[in-house]
Structures are given as C-alpha cells and as structure tokens.
Design goal:
386 residues; binds molybdenum atom; oxidoreductase; mainly beta; Ig_E-set; heme binding; Sulfite Oxidase, Chain A, domain 2; five-stranded antiparallel sheet; globular; 39% strand; binds ligand MTE; MoCF_OxRdtse_dimer; 6 helices; molybdenum
Length: 386
C-alpha cells in the first residue's frame, strides 16, 4: 500500500513537475491569514532543545504565515555536532566518479552554466515529531540548480551500477564493530531514484545563493524525500554497484518496526527514504470575523485534510487553492465559529490522492514503530480559548 502511494506520488509528481519545472511554482495565492488577527499560542510546547549543536533552528508553528519559508527561518540541522563547513567556492569542485565512463570534476561556475531547474519543495527531517524537542524540523523553499539525471547521462553510467552515493564535506569520529572510524556525512539511493527528473543539485534557495547553513556551495535536493537524503556541502557523487553502509546509512536513519504478516510478527529495520503522508495544525488565530485553525499537509499529493476539535466529528478543512506544487506542503484552514471558553484539543489528518489516510497514533504503523524516525502519526495540539 505504501509502495503504491510512493508510485502515485512519483507519477503524478513528475507529470505535474514538468509543468512547473521552468516557470516555478505559483506564488499568487494568499495565505489564509486575516488583517489584525492574533495568534493563540499552543498550551503544549516543545521541550527545551538538549542538542543545540545539532538542532540549530526550527520552525515555530505559531509563526507560520507564508507558504514559502524565508531562509533565515528555515530549520537548520547538522547531524555532526557543530559541523558547519565553510567551503572555499573558488577552489571547490564536485567530483563525479565511480562506475562511470567519463568522470567529471565540476566547479560552481560549470554547474551554473548547465541547464537551470527550479523546484518548490518541502523538506522535513525524518526525526520531526519523533522527539519532544523536535517538532518544527520542516520548511518549504524554492530551490534552483541543475538536474542530476543529465549529469549521470553525460558521465556514462556503467551497466553494473545500481546505487549512487552523495558525499558531504563534513566528517566525524564514529565507532562501530569495535573500530574507531572517521566518516563523512553521506547517503546513497538507488540509481533509478537518482535518475528521477526532479532530483536537483541546488546552488540557490529562495532566490539567494545557498546559505552556508543549508549546504553552500551545493546540496542535493531530493523532492519528496526526508531531510537526511538531501546531502549538504556536497563534494562527491559516486556511482556504485552496492549500497553505502556507513554511519548515516546503516546505523542512523533506520526505522525499526514490528510488522504483522499472517498473524506472525516480523521485526524490520528499514532505511529512511521518501517522506510520509502527514499534516499538522500550525496556529489558531482570532480576528473580528472569528476563530480560525490553519495548518499544513505534506508527504504525498494531498487530496483532503480533516480537523477534529475535542472529541467532535472530523470536519473537512479548506485547502489553500493558490499555492500548491507537487512536492510542497498544502496549506489548509478551518473556521471555528463558536469556540467555548476553556481548553480544547485540535487534531488534523490528511488523505492523499490515492486514498491513504494519515495514520492515527494507535495505528500499528506508528504504535509498533520503535525508533523516532518517520513519525507521521496524527498530531494533537492544545489551546485555551479565553
Ligand atoms: N552534509 C550534510 N548534509 C546533511 C546533514 C548533515 O549533517 N550533513 N543533515 C541532514 C539532515 S538529517 C537534515 S534533516 C537536513 C537538514 O537540512 P537543513 O539544515 O537545510 O534544513 O540536511 C541533511 N543533509
Ligand atoms: Mo534530519
């Protein structure tokens, strides 16, 4: 079922993507905010961040008031504590090698001279909502760069190749199998995934040079995939005949689940890949014309979002028609005409165009998941109406 969802995302995404690739996404629509409105802060707030050298910045949901996340508000995560490599763009080169007929070595100017492609996409950290202090690791930006597929073509991928690895500049000491190592941040994906037309080597973010925090001079932007896949500070792309099994592929970003098949339980460990269908209430606002709940939905092509207040019925929210793109979050809103004074809970759930529903917290997909990654269960927040 999930594989079908993914295929649906890719088929529909790619078709729609073709229309958006050149012109970029429409920014014409208006975010559902109202003049003079005030925001009611959530009563439940994230825990204090115990790892400021790793989680540097997160989205404050109450502040969400535009479809595009400005660069200085975009969440910033480094898996290696404190790593923030300052790359000298003048001497930097992207190495493109491994099982290719013609290895390439490309400067930033070489990359910028190649065909330009833009994509507006939402990036969510795979750990988002999985830890009490990690709740705003998500943002939506317009990225510009050059597509990866033509480079693979130009380098000439050899027949035995099945996998492509993306190596970052940042490295750290790791220990596993009784061995101390020094490993770079790196991720790999299948050659078929790497060849998808939306895969982008990005050097611009929202019309500015890619900021250092977000991977200057070059990052992979993998639309529809969790944050970890979007390797920053890229230095090497390697075509291989095997999967990468380093720290950040084999040990981190692994989801452990108990999966039931024919009454028998199988424990699985799977690598984090594409994002999963999810939504979140962002903010409750009050204005002269009443109270409104606004939120976002992402991870698959969104067909519908529903909101539930306290133990009431699920009510369909309005999807913002103006600002949509195949790999970007959809903004939704729901008017709440007569909220009674006191404390309330607000839950949202998204349905994708293939009919899949965002899982409830007691769905085995979530309840039988043992690691914090890929926490796409329905989110409930609490608010007090004065
Ligand atoms: N080189 C490198 N790339 C990386 C990381 C990293 O630590 N090093 N972290 C990954 C993770 S886990 C996430 S969620 C995203 C965060 O991207 P952002 O900081 O631009 O929001 O970058 C990914 N790419
Ligand atoms: Mo992440």
């Amino acid at each position: 079922m999930l594989d079908l969802t993914r295929r649906d995302l890719i088929l529909k995404g790619s078709a729609a993507f073709a229309a958006h690739a050149i012109v970029g996404a429409s920014r014409a629509g208006a975010f559902p905010s109202r003049p003079g409105e005030t925001v009611l802060p959530w009563l439940d707030q994230p825990d204090e961040n115990p790892v400021p050298g790793i989680i540097h910045n997160q989205l404050v949901w109450e502040d969400l008031d535009s479809w595009i996340t400005p660069n200085d508000e975009f969440f910033f995560i480094t898996n290696i504590d404190g790593a923030r490599p300052e790359v000298d763009a003048a001497s930097w080169k992207l190495e493109f090698d491994g099982l290719v007929d013609r290895p390439l070595s490309l400067s930033l100017d070489d990359l910028k001279a190649r065909p330009r492609q833009e994509v507006t996409c939402t990036i969510e950290c795979s750990g988002n909502s999985g830890l009490p202090f990690l709740t705003g690791a998500i943002g939506n930006a317009t990225w510009a760069g050059t597509p990866l597929a033509p480079l693979l073509q130009e380098a000439g991928v050899q027949p035995e190749a099945i996998e492509v690895a993306f190596w970052g500049t940042d490295a750290t000491d790791v220990e596993a199998r009784d061995t101390k190592m020094h490993e770079n941040y790196a991720r790999s994906m299948t050659l078929a995934d790497a060849r998808r037309p939306e895969m982008l080597l990005a050097y611009e973010m929202n019309g500015e040079a890619l900021p250092i925090d977000h991977g200057f001079p070059l990052r992979l932007v993998a639309p529809g995939w969790y944050g970890s896949v979007n390797v920053k500070w890229l230095r090497r792309i390697e075509v291989m005949d095997h999967r990468l099994e380093t720290q950040f592929m084999a040990r981190d970003f692994v989801t452990v689940r108990e999966v039931e098949r024919d009454g028998e339980t199988f424990w699985t460990e799977t690598s984090v890949r594409h994002m999963r269908l999810k939504s979140a209430p962002a903010r409750v606002t009050r204005a002269e014309d009443g109270t409104r709940i606004t939120g976002a939905a992402w991870g698959a092509p969104i067909a519908k979002v529903e909101v539930r207040i306290d133990d009431g019925p699920w009510q369909e929210a309005r999807l913002d028609p103006g600002e949509r793109a195949p790999f970007a979050w959809a903004i939704w809103s729901h008017d709440w005409p007569d909220p009674s004074p006191g404390e309330h809970t607000i839950t949202s759930r998204a349905t994708d165009t293939a009919g899949n529903l965002q899982p409830a917290m007691d769905d085995p997909l979530i309840a039988k998941k043992h690691t914090f990654y890929e926490s796409n269960g329905q989110i409930t927040r609490r608010v007090r109406i004065g």
